[in-house]
Amino acid sequence: MLNIGICGVGKYGINLLDYLTSIKNTCPLNIRAFCAQSEETIKNISIKYGIKGYFNTESMLSDNKLNVVIVATPDYAHDDSILTAIDNKCHVFIEKPMTMNPASAYNILINAAQKNVLICIDFHKRYDPDYIALRNCISEGKIGHPLYAHIHMEDKIEVPTSWINWASKTSPIWFLGTHYFDLLRHLTNKEVISVFAKGQKTILINKGINTYDAVQCLLEFNDGFTASVNVGWVLPNGFEAIVRQGLHIVGTMGAVTIDSQDRVVRFFSDKASYTQNNHFILTENKNGIVKYSGYCFEPLKQFIGDLLAGKKVVSGANAYDGYKATEIAYAVQQSLDKGLPITLQE
Ligand SMILES: NC(=O)c1ccc[n+]([C@@H]2O[C@H](COP(=O)([O-])OP(=O)(O)OC[C@H]3O[C@@H](n4cnc5c(N)ncnc54)[C@H](O)[C@@H]3O)[C@@H](O)[C@H]2O)c1
Q1: For residue 78, how far is its CA from the centre of ligand 1 (angstroms)?
Q2: What separation, in Å, do the N-terminal and C-terminal C-alpha atoms of the chain show?
């Protein structure tokens, strides 16, 4: 039986809590407890989901016998919850980025190995059907040897200004870029050896949020493959979806373009039109029973499956993958700070 606690029940943690709630009657798991930082959230979530809330991971763990902890706190606040969970011999599912510091990520990796617990990072782009198809295409040699790629992922400005109140403590590199740093490693089985980045700080800083509006990174991989990863979160709120994203990759024998925007359903009304990514989250309500599907939930679903099957390694992104994405993001940040290319250690 999996006894699960969730640290962080904000915008993203709630998705995971809803998913677990929807499968708890058909899967051997109990959702025992959660953590949040506001008294109001603790009260509301406790009433709605019938589980007990705590202000921190330590008190949640000392009061409940848990064997799985989900960490969905803000990017800068993952480390302590992860280490406390590992110390209590819990397997840990972590929202991306694993941490914002490579030394801390490495420490987590070592601690988890010593305590014999599994770590899985929620890099859900690995489960997007279009990227699964692209990975197959590359591994079957259909585009030959990958030469270069262009990637863009841009959120509406609503995300750093209204969705989260901690944007100044992270950046588009950590919040968005880490998804693609992981995906590129996953698609190509190659490692990044150097990065060079430039960024803009104009719009958000004028709103009192001291972080980058956008960052353009050039990643060089160990066989000469390069990828430009362009991330930002200042798209006007009039854009038709919360995020605009896509990838184009060129190899010696072919190329693939993935338009992650126009694969979607477009809704119209007198007031607005908007698009919806039904690959990401699909909700079906059958006689009051809600079923969730989509690549948003696949990493957690697979992690739960791994734990129930008694697997000794995770099928999804593991602690090493989390460490590598953090290492790349940290190098990008250093490149921005120093205005220089940064070489990563082999
Ligand atoms: N996988 C994805 O595509 C995706 C999408 C959005 C966010 N995220 C990630 O999910 C995480 C949470 O993001 P969010 O948008 O839900 O943020 P949020 O601000 O909406 O929610 C954060 C939650 O953590 C709680 N919290 C804050 N500090 C805490 C602490 N020290 N201990 C315990 N709880 C604490 C807050 O009370 C709140 O419940 C971030 O790491 C973010 O990057 C992932």
Answers
A1: 9
A2: 40
Indicate which residue's Cα is closest to atom 23 of ligand 1: 8
Pocket flag, ligand 1, residue 330 (CB < 6 Å): no
> Domains in the chain: how many in total?
2
pLDDT tens figures, 23-73: 999 999 999 999 999 999 999 999 999 999 999 999 999 999 999 999 999
Same domain, 271 and 151: yes
Query: pLDDT tens for residues 100-155?
Result: 999 999 999 999 999 999 999 999 999 999 999 999 999 999 999 999 999 999 99
Whole-model pTM: value is 0.97
Question: How buried is 111 (Cβ within 10 angstroms: 0-12 exposed, 13-18 middle, 19+ buried)?
Answer: middle
Within this chain, do residues 165 and 102 fall inside the same structural domain, yes or no? no
Domain, as residue range, for 59: 2-117
Phi, psi for 294 (deg, rounded to 5): 120, 165
